[in-house]
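> forwarded from #structure-qc
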C-alpha cells in the first residue's frame, strides 16, 4: 500500500512538472524574458494597437536614427538619466526591448526585472539578429 502511494505521488509530481515548463508560449510568459526575433514579431503583432504596449530601443540616438523597429521609442542606455527613464515607465505595460546585439538590452532587462515589470520581451541578438532574420526596420 505504501509503495502504491509513493508511486502515485511521484507520478503526479512528474505530470505537474511536465505540464509546467519548457514551452515557448511567449504570450503566457510573465516577467522579463528573452525571445527570438520571430517571437518578438508575434508580440508586436499581438499588442501593436494596445496603448500599454511600447517597443523600447536602448541604443544611442545616432544608432536609432540609422534604423529602428517601426514605432520604437529611444531610451539611450548610456544617458545619465537612463535608469530614471526606465523607472518612469508603467511596470504593468507590455514592452519589447532591444539594442544592437543584445548586451545593453540584457542589462536593461535586468533593471526592469529588479523594478518588477510584468511583461518585457527582450530580443535575443538585438536589431542585428532581427534584420538577419528578415524583419524590417525603418529610418
Amino acid at each position: 500500500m505504501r509503495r502504491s502511494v509513493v508511486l502515485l505521488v511521484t507520478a503526479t509530481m512528474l505530470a505537474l512538472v511536465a505540464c509546467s515548463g519548457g514551452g515557448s508560449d511567449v504570450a503566457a510568459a510573465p516577467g522579463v524574458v528573452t525571445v527570438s526575433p520571430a517571437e518578438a514579431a508575434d508580440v508586436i503583432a499581438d499588442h501593436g494597437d494596445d496603448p500599454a504596449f511600447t517597443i523600447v530601443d536602448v541604443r544611442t540616438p545616432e544608432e536609432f536614427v540609422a534604423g529602428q523597429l517601426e514605432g520604437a521609442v529611444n531610451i539611450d542606455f548610456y544617458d545619465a538619466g537612463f535608469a530614471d527613464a526606465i523607472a518612469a515607465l508603467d511596470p504593468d505595460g507590455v514592452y519589447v526591448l532591444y539594442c544592437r546585439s543584445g548586451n545593453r538590452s540584457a542589462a536593461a532587462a535586468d533593471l526592469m526585472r529588479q523594478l518588477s515589470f510584468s511583461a518585457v520581451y527582450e530580443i535575443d541578438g538585438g536589431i542585428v539578429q532581427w534584420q538577419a532574420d528578415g524583419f524590417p526596420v525603418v529610418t
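QC bot note: Residues 1-29 have pLDDT under 50 and may be disordered. The longest helix spans residues 2-20.
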